[in-house]
Amino acid sequence: MKQTKIVDILNVEKPADTVLVKGWVRTRRDSKGFSFVELNDGSCLKNMQIITDSNLTNYDDICRITTGSALAVTGKLVESPGKGQKWEIHADSVTIISMAPETYPLQKKRHTDEFLRTISHLRPRTNKYSAIFRIRSELSFLIHKFFRDRGFKYIHTPIITGSDCEGAGEMFRVTALELENIPKKDGKPDLTKDFFGGESNLTVSGQLSAEMFALALGDVYTFGPTFRAENSNTRRHAAEFWMVEPEMAFCDLEGDMDLAETFLKYLTENIMEACKEDLELFYKFVDKTLFDTLSGIVESGFERIPYKKAVDILTKANKKFEYDVSFGNNLQAEHERYLAEEYIKKPVIVYDYPKEIKPFYMRINDDNTTAAAMDVLVPRIGEIIGGSQREERLDFLETRMEEDGLKKEHYWWYLDSRKYGSVPHSGFGLGFERMLMLITGVVNIRDVIPFPRTPGSIEF
Length: 460
Ligand code: 4AD
Ligand code: MG
Known about the structure:
Layout: H1 6-10, E1 18-31, E2 34-40, E3 48-53, H2 59-62, E4 70-79, E5 87-98, H3 113-117, H4 127-149, E6 153-154, E7 160-161, E8 184-185, E9 188-189, E10 201-202, H5 207-217, E11 219-227, E12 240-249, H6 253-274, H7 276-285, H8 290-299, E13 303-306, H9 307-316, H10 333-343, E14 348-354, E15 370-378, E16 382-389, H11 394-403, H12 412-419, E17 425-431, H13 432-440
Parallel strand pairs: 3-5, 6-11, 13-14
Antiparallel strand pairs: 1-2, 1-4, 2-3, 4-5, 7-10, 8-9, 11-12, 12-17, 14-15, 15-16, 16-17
Helix pairs in contact: 4-6, 4-7, 6-8
């Protein structure tokens, strides 16, 4: 007999004949001549109530079933008198696939997120985490759908690379050399003897490769893991995170901002539709303002302000910040959140940042002091998207690389794209986990990643 998922049973209109369900026991309680089992198979938030009666041949064993045990149940779908569920299963047979000992850590009580992080291998069996990871799955597909529907081509950019896209030097090194026995030349590691014959790292962004493909296929995107060795133990930074990076040929900064806004609205609106039941849980138990925030994103036009004005607003704000604000400094999370959460009270796009605080590839504006950069800031998170129009003029790009001390020979292929058929082009990167935090109201990035990678932690 074929297994039926609980999520599909919820949609059954009339009582079906016999069904087979398989899953894990959340709770069990006994009453005279019956034992009631709450079974969950991970396909949705709801459990299926299984009624077992004392006529079952293994009823004695059933009465010993513990939380966390795995079962296969066949039985008839009958209308449930209980609230909040349409169907329950009257069991004809219960097979105990495996019995969990009493040491199972997820006994029925509420656990803290901190505790659940120490059992990341088991936390997807809780309501909250199974919901997060179903939403994570759904959101991935929506991202692909958004781009596919608009004719963007999906490019697999390399994970191992020789270049530092963001120029921030926050890279994990990749080597096949024996750490105890590193060949040296003039006192330094001789990387010509390493696997790739030169310096290699895990990528911090797929952008430079994506640009090459935008200048061939038009509109492209990459969506994959990226890595940053920034040793900042914050709630919105992970060492391994996923980034969505569209890149568009023949597109300026305004077109870039338009796409970013349309994209965020699309994802928010569609995830609310696709994951209704799971999102309800976050509204009830995590953030009472969740649906207001999400409707705010879908319904409001994003405010767009130049960096200079943002600094102006922040210096005049009647608020004590931990970090000072002044023209030429990076905005900190507290500043970004103030702008989106308190001042404008909806998503805001800040653009035209001072060129000194932005990477080499961004297009220099006519004022020669700012770059055509844009960051999308949202309530509760701050920066969720970072993007720019790219410098398409070879001479400007070369000057900028010299100023930043980048070796031109190393980026010869990138410069080639500005020699041959260079055109205005733009793109951005959306932090996938930050989007999940926005959608669920979860405040720590560690709690939206299956097995988070953060400083000092490599378990699981
Ligand atoms: O602003 P960032 O550094 O931009 C880039 O990497 C560009 N090359 C993207 C592009 O134009 N194609 O990063 C983009 C986004 C940020 O806005 C943030 O949401 C997320 O990636 N992000 C992180 N998310 C989690 N942990 C980290 N350590 C992150 N660093 C950046
Ligand atoms: Mg950024």
